[in-house]
Design goal:
By secondary structure, the chain is mainly alpha-helical. The chain has one domain (4-294). It is 56% helix and 3% strand. The chain is built from 15 helices and 3 strands. It has helices spanning 9-14, 16-34, 42-55, 60-73, 93-98, 101-110, 113-126, 140-164, 166-190, 207-214, 222-227, 234-239, 248-254, 266-271, 290-294; strands spanning 91-92, 277-279, 284-286. A 3-stranded mixed sheet has the order 1-2-3. A hairpin with a 4-residue loop joins strand 2 (277-279) and strand 3. Helix 2 (16-34) runs antiparallel to helix 3 (42-55), helix 4 crosses helix 8 (140-164) and helix 7 packs across helix 9. The longest helix is centred in the middle third of the chain and has 25 residues, at 140-164. The radius of gyration is 20 Å and the shape is globular. The relative contact order is 0.13. This is Fatty acid desaturase. The chain crosses the membrane at residues 7-28, 114-133, 145-164, 170-190. Residues 11-258 form the Fatty acid desaturase domain. One of its GO terms (biological process) is lipid metabolic process. InterPro entries: FA_desaturase_dom, Fatty_acid_desaturase.
Length: 304
């Protein structure tokens, strides 16, 4: 990209697509390190995770602890607001309807697919991860990781800027992180918010059922599956987080109980970006409007 950008700007920009996809794969390796599953050695996982975190602009220790919290509350309606974000949680239809009108407008605006899946993802990695905004004061190691990551990134970008040119570095790195974040956040949101996902109250919630019924199994073309590090087998990951990404497909093929539900297609996954609420009466995810139902999903105005 650095060589091509001076010969043909459009051609150099096109290469941001495979580069961004490779960065998604690097994030999956970082994700495995966070679960202690990429290597046997804990030290090796920590070292590799920190290196990957620099490439993905993610403070590794801080992200790892927040992600661990996610693995304790996913698809649990009574614990969903514990360390949650707009991509892994949702309101119920009744809760949404009970909001004041201005809060409903804000809730819908932030979760519109263009905002949630195009505008916000790059901002999360470029800006939000630069501050420990949601990290408790007593998480000293995690807060320190944010500042150390920022310091190292600043040094790396300055070095690259003096070597290759500041405009070129900012343009190319921005393009790559935009592509990677949009793909990665879509995958992240789809893992628990899809048409057949199941959410339960605390008394009905169980680890196994939440894994198999509340986490997605996404069928991707072989190339996309490689770039995304087999994360499409997310139901297996939640059931057994210590299984590394390169063993997930083998688990899927070896255990019939993991294949009882039809996998999501890419098309169904793309349509799922409209789903933002849990309908407790219909027991399914729904969209806000008839535009969402036109894609095959029910809506708040016209519930199933």
């Amino acid at each position: 990209m650095y060589k091509l950008i001076h010969l043909s700007l459009p051609l150099g920009m096109v290469l941001a697509i495979p580069a961004g996809a490779l960065l998604v794969r690097i994030f999956i390796l970082q994700h495995d390190c966070g679960h202690g599953s990429l290597f046997v050695s804990r030290a090796a996982n920590t070292l590799a995770g920190r290196i990957c975190g620099l490439l993905t602009l993610t403070p590794y220790a801080n992200w790892r602890r927040h992600h661990a919290a996610h693995h304790g509350v996913w698809n649990n309606l009574d614990r969903r607001h514990s360390g949650a974000d707009i991509y892994t949680t949702c309101l119920t239809v009744k809760e949404y309807r009970a909001l004041p009108w201005h809060d409903r407008i804000l809730y819908r605006a932030v979760r519109h697919p263009i905002v949630a899946h195009v505008i916000l993802p790059p901002l999360v990695f470029i800006l939000l991860y630069r501050v420990p905004f949601d990290t408790p004061e007593n998480w000293t190691q995690e807060r320190r990781s944010v500042h150390i990551t920022n310091t190292v990134l600043a040094g790396v970008l300055l070095g690259l800027g003096f070597w290759l040119g500041f405009w070129e570095v900012l343009l190319i790195q921005a393009l790559i992180i935009v592509v990677a974040s949009i793909i990665g956040v879509w995958l992240f949101a789809l893992q628990h918010r899809f048409d057949s996902s199941q959410w339960n109250r605390e008394e009905q919630w169980s680890f196994a059922s939440a894994s198999l019924e509340g986490s997605s199994c996404l069928r991707l073309p072989r190339v996309m599956q490689w770039f995304t590090g087999n994360i499409g087998f997310h139901h297996i990951h939640h059931l057994a987080p210590r299984v590394p990404n390169y063993r997930l497909q083998a688990c899927y093929e070896a255990i019939p109980a993991l294949r009882t539900r039809a996998p999501l297609t890419v098309g169904a996954g793309l349509r799922s970006v409209w789903l933002a609420l849990w309908d407790e009466d219909a027991e399914r995810m729904v969209g806000f409007s008839r535009r969402g139902s036109a894609a095959g999903h029910p809506s708040v105005e016209k519930p199933a």
